[in-house]
Design a protein that fits this description.
Layout: H1 4-13, H2 21-33, H3 35-55
Helix pairs in contact: 1-2, 1-3, 2-3
Length: 61
């Protein structure tokens, strides 16, 4: 069973690289049971999305 430290490290790495099948599956199983890591993953995704929008602003009409 994956611990929170390993899960958060992989969630962070997932922003920069594609996780292996085993890594991805392990993270999904862990976050299904761990609310803290699930929230951390959502926050990492939101930060990534916001930073991409900041770097490449949406075109104005």
């Amino acid at each position: 069973m994956m611990n929170c430290k390993s899960a958060t490290q992989l969630l962070s790495q997932a922003q920069d690289r594609k996780l292996t099948f085993i890594e991805s599956t392990s993270v999904k199983l862990h976050t299904a049971m761990c609310k803290g890591c699930r929230n951390y993953g959502m926050q990492m995704k939101q930060l990534s999305d916001l930073s991409k929008r900041f770097i490449q602003p949406e075109p104005r009409s």
